Amino acid sequence: MLRRDFAAFGFASALLHASQDQPLIERLASGFQFTEGPVWLPESAVLFSDIPLNRLIKWSLKHGKQVARENSGGANGNAIDSRGRVYTCEGGARRITRTGTDNKVEVLAERFEGKRFNAPNDIAVRRDGHVWFTDPAFGKAEATRELPFNGVFHINPKGDLSLVVRMDRRPNGVALSPDGRILYVAVSDERAIRAWDINRDGEASNPRLLITGIDGPPDGLKTDSKGNLYVAANQIVIYSPKGELLRRIPMPEKPSNLCFGPDDKTFYVTARTTLYRVYPDAKQAQAQP
């Protein structure tokens, strides 16, 4: 059985599952209110949001958990581009921002046709700089909304904003296929994943319902290098690129989102009060230093 002793680093970690036929799940950091939007940073750290505390948190093996940004605008989903810049859905401030490697925060979008966004939720960035994000109205955002619909939006590398689709139901997580040619959107109210083909200019076509009947409203989602979709719902549910159910990974807390580390051997899960690390293959985990 694999165990890791993190006490020497001044923070807690607990091994929750470890067997040859189960994933290995580690509790890396706890004590948060509601975590979301994890993204892997080049410095071998995970950046994620604690929405009620209005903070961005950074976790690393070397330093444990640290506050990366106070007054985050109610940050929710995060993503990173090929230049190491972090894109954030500031749900409270109702805008999309980009933080450079110099920590300067730039506003990319905050209105569509003169009206403020509802509460930007999740975001994905393609290698060539095209950006997609979801803008549902959950909870308090419903009472203050200016747009009469829930939307999925696109920002091109020049900064031009366009609407991909307007919805009555609420889109949530968003992800891209490894080749950047397919856009995936989790629709919480449908318990479904929808997909679009996207071309080099970021234009979407061929809308389709890819996955239905998800166990719980889907939240965040990511794709691995093979194009499999990992969906945070009542548990982590894994589907093939064709929408076939491959595996379920129960979590100690209901997951909200996830991101991969430097490869497919590990992924990190934000789940309410805790950040977890998951090794889907316990045999591979045992081989890690």
Annotated CATH topology? Neuraminidase
Let me know the number of strands.
Answer: 27
In terms of structural class, how would the helical and strand content be classed?
A: mainly beta
Strand order of the largest sheet: 1-2-27-26-25
What are the key terms here?
single chain; 289 residues; mainly beta; Neuraminidase; 5-stranded antiparallel β-sheet; 4-stranded antiparallel β-sheet
Describe the overall structure.
The chain is mainly β. The N terminus is likely disordered. The radius of gyration is 18 Å and the shape is globular. The protein has a single domain, classed as TolB, C-terminal domain (Neuraminidase, 6 Propeller). It has a five-stranded antiparallel β-sheet with strand order 1-2-27-26-25. It contains two helices and 27 strands.
Summarize this structure briefly.
This protein is mainly beta. The chain has helices spanning 141-144, 282-286; strands spanning 14-19, 22-29, 35-41, 45-50, 55-60, 64-70, 75-80, 86-90, 95-99, 105-109, 111-112, 115-116, 123-125, 131-135, 150-155, 161-167, 171-176, 182-187, 192-198, 204-211, 221-223, 229-232, 236-239, 245-249, 257-260, 267-271, 274-279.
Q: Any chance you could write out the topology, listing elements then pairs?
A:
Blueprint: E1 14-19, E2 22-29, E3 35-41, E4 45-50, E5 55-60, E6 64-70, E7 75-80, E8 86-90, E9 95-99, E10 105-109, E11 111-112, E12 115-116, E13 123-125, E14 131-135, H1 141-144, E15 150-155, E16 161-167, E17 171-176, E18 182-187, E19 192-198, E20 204-211, E21 221-223, E22 229-232, E23 236-239, E24 245-249, E25 257-260, E26 267-271, E27 274-279, H2 282-286
